[in-house]
Amino acid sequence: MKSFLCTVSFILASVAHAQQHPLFKEADLALGEKLITDNKCEECHKRRAGGDGSGIYNPKGRINTAGALRGMVEYCNTELNLGFFPEDTTAVAAALNKRHYKFK
Domain segments of the chain: what residues? Predict the structure, then answer.
């Protein structure tokens, strides 16, 4: 039973990882989620977009490619002086892609 569960977990992780856009293939999703939380991104988005902040995520708007998404995260990094390294920016963009955008 344990080996079956390990196999199922591996397959599900592979499928979830395979569904990410190639730009985010090597991204650390856990790091991205942590950076989003640690830098209070959602609080900033609530101030800018109102409500629960989710209105800022609009895949049919300005952010219509994975590259544009990564670019917007880099914009926030630069404007807010967050100090992200390139792999941090990619990790955050990958986490946002998984949550909201679903670029493949």
Answer: 2-101
Helix (H) or strand (E) holding 40: none
Residue among 99, 50, 52, 51 nearest 73 (CA)? 99
Q: Count of CB atoms within 10 A of residue 80's CB?
A: 13
| Amino acid 28: pLDDT | 97
Where helices occur in the chain by DSSP H, the ranges are 2-18, 29-38, 41-49, 66-79, 86-96
Which residues 6+ apart lie within 8 Å of 87 measured at CB? Answer: 27, 28, 31
Which residues are CB-neighbours of 62 under 8 A, at least 6 positions away? 68, 72
Q: How many CB atoms lie within 10 A of CB 50?
A: 10
Residues 10-30: pLDDT tens digits? Answer: 444 444 444 789 999 999 999
Distance between CA atoms of residues 20 and 71, nearest Å: 17
Q: Other C-beta atoms within 10 Å of 46: how many?
A: 16
